[in-house]
Each structure stands twice: as C-alpha cells, then as structure tokens.
Design a protein that fits this description.
The protein is an alpha+beta fold. It contains five helices and seven strands.
Length: about 140
Amino acid sequence: MPSTGKSRASAGDLLQLRDAALQLGVSFPTIKQWIYKKKLRSIQTAGGHHRIPQREVDKLLFRTRGKTEKEREQVIRRVSGRNQLVGRIESVRISGLMAEVKISIGGQQITSIITASSAREMQLKKGQTAAALIKATEVMIIRV
C-alpha cells in the first residue's frame, strides 16, 4: 500500500516506527522494509518521518505475533478453540468483581466481561496485544 502525505487520523492514531515494530513483534528494519516495499501503509510527517496508522498495525497483528509459521501455530494451539481473533486492547475497566475488556480487531471492537481477578492476573492494559477466544455452540451470519 502506498505511502501518503496527509491523513485525517489524529496524532493518537499514528505510531512511530519503533512502537509499531514493538506491537507487531518485528524489528525496526523490517518495518522500514515493509514501508519501502509498500506492504505497510505509512503517512509521512512534514519533516519526512514515517508514521504508521494504528489500523495498519491491527491488520497485521495476527500474522506477525510469532516470528515463524511454527511459532504462530504454537501460540494458537495452546487451547483447543480455533475461533481466535487477535487484536489490541482498547480499554480495561475494572469494577468490583468484574472487568470489561474491549479489543480492537481490524477496525471492529469486541467486548468481553471477565472476572476482575483474571484481568489483574493477566495484567491486561490498554495497547497490549490480546486474542479474543470465541466459544459458542452456534455462529450466526447476518448479511450486511
């Protein structure tokens, strides 16, 4: 995807290359190569620095969490469920015995209610990468 000069995104939606690399679990040079090869869309500042929209990072989270295909498979196979969606934690709100965790996945949001002790034990914080494991006996499809 090509690099563009202007963006409507707010400054909070744009990441420095090192921050994007950290979230994706790849090196700084890898991020730069992805930009140059147009595999990752970036926005250039007036000073010529690249910034990565958070949405671009969110799209790549699942594909990059392990450095190799085998490592990615091992991350998923730690539990029996296959309906896992990887994203970024948007918010964690703890109240009493419960916690509300919102995860952004490819521009969409999933909200989960878990115990407060689980949220604390996992040390969930805004900006971290997490997976939503969906366990249901039925999945309904709605044509939109």
